[in-house]
Specification:
Mean pLDDT: 80
Structural class: mainly alpha
Helix content: 55-70%
Strand content: under 5%
Number of strands: 0
Distance between the termini: 63 Å
Low-confidence stretches: 362-373, 400-410
């Protein structure tokens, strides 16, 4: 018995080592895109440097072959910058302990585990059975934003982890840990801004002070650790957002689409959808605050946040996975639906597949898109909005309460 236990341990270690070497070999020739900003920021932070300084970041990135290894024709003096707030550095600090390729390999394997376990927790918390867990995993690992995030080494997978842990703890009424999990979402506060507003309203309405304590504990811990390495980190961050404002970016949002159509200098277009989303949320909260159920509102809120955010990238859309898993869970009950309902479900599912295939393949920099670069641009900017509408229609056609509150009753 003891010998077999030892054999299993050594077998597991050997499997992990072989997997590590295989992933390292595969990543050696892959273009370096987003991961390099987290790795170089972690290196600088551990050394007491300024992770928001372009010259210092460029000095760290140059030895890795940047920008020639990015796969994108960046200028030679361009450094890929980490724009996340200071407390986000806490989550990437371990990356700075290793060389670039080793760190990227470890991070890729950790992200695979995070996506797998987050999907499992979300599926089970939503009420999915273990028998159909493979469907949830298949959806998660084939979802375009997941593959983009894993390939680019994006930090977005931590948003999925934070959502999964938050939902898991809320269902078990572990309010302190739910708050701590929610603090992870602040690494990209713009991506889930409507969810954040709804969360604040819900906490104040229910006087859930343990949640606030957990959130503050998580946020202050992450900030304090970063501050210990770079005491003036907030000064560096404020200077960086003034020197490189997000309005100078053309990101994957409807506001950006309006700017590209009517003029990039009209930055106020970025806020139109956010104002609409905030107004809708306040109306919805006033209507449903007394019967608020997170299993209904969480998927809807992440979709609404993604659809109305001020700025965001394609990898950020990994946050809508809870909504897609919720729809998959509804499809699991097809046997109890009428023939007309099944037909509508299949049509909407086909629409979802079409949106993914037509607008998310191939990569954004590939101009040989099946519908042309203009159609691709429209698709990427309206992707979350399309999913939000499909999500509401699916609930409506299944004869359930419309969680988004945007469709008329039949």
């Amino acid at each position: 018995m003891q010998l077999s236990y030892i054999i299993r341990i050594f077998g597991s270690l050997a499997g992990i080592m072989l997997s590590f070497l295989l992933v390292r070999w595969c990543l050696a020739d892959r273009p370096t895109i987003d991961f390099i900003e987290y790795w170089s920021a972690a290196k600088l932070t551990l050394a007491g440097g300024n992770p928001y300084s372009m010259p210092e970041m460029l000095a760290v990135q140059k030895p890795t072959g940047w920008p020639a290894n990015s796969g994108i024709p960046f200028p030679a003096d361009y450094a890929h910058m980490m724009r996340n707030p200071p407390w986000a550095l806490f989550f990437v600090l371990p990356l700075g302990l290793f060389d670039f390729l080793t760190s990227r390999t470890i991070y890729f394997m950790v992200c695979l585990v995070i996506v797998g376990f987050s999907t499992k927790w979300l599926w089970q918390t939503l009420g999915g059975s273990k028998k159909f867990l493979w469907i949830a995993l298949f959806i998660a690992f084939t979802f375009p934003s997941t593959t983009r995030s894993l390939d680019a080494g994006q930090i977005c997978v931590l948003l999925l982890l934070g959502l999964a842990l938050f939902f898991y703890c809320v269902r078990r009424e572990q309010w302190f840990w739910a708050g701590a999990a929610a603090s992870v979402l602040l690494i990209k506060p713009h991506a889930l801004f409507l969810f954040g507003v709804a969360l604040v309203l819900w906490v104040l309405h229910n006087r859930c002070w343990r949640f606030i304590l957990g959130a503050l504990t998580g946020l202050l811990t992450a900030t304090a650790v970063t501050w210990l390495f770079v005491p003036n980190i907030f000064e560096h961050y404020l200077f960086s957002i003034q020197d490189y404002p997000f309005q100078s970016w053309t990101t994957f949002t409807p506001g950006t689409l309006l700017r590209e159509t009517f003029g990039l200098e009209k930055t106020w277009f970025d806020y139109i959808y956010s104002v609409f989303g905030t107004g809708w949320l306040l109306w919805y909260w006033r209507r449903h605050r007394h019967d608020w159920r997170w299993e209904e509102t969480l998927p809807m809120l992440v979709l609404a946040s993604a659809a109305t955010t001020v700025f965001g990238w394609d990898a950020d859309y990994i946050i809508v996975l809870p909504a897609i898993l919720s729809i998959a869970l509804r499809i699991e009950t097809l046997s109890s639906l009428s023939q007309a309902q099944r037909r509508k479900v299949f049509i909407l599912t086909g629409c979802y597949v079409a949106i993914v295939v037509l607008y998310y393949f191939p990569a954004p920099h590939d101009r040989f898109h099946i519908l042309g670069i203009a159609a691709y641009r429209w698709g990427e900017c309206l992707f979350a909005t399309s999913l939000w509408i499909l999500y509401a229609m699916m609930h409506h056609f299944l004869g359930r309460k419309d969680p988004a509150g945007i469709l008329p009753r039949a």
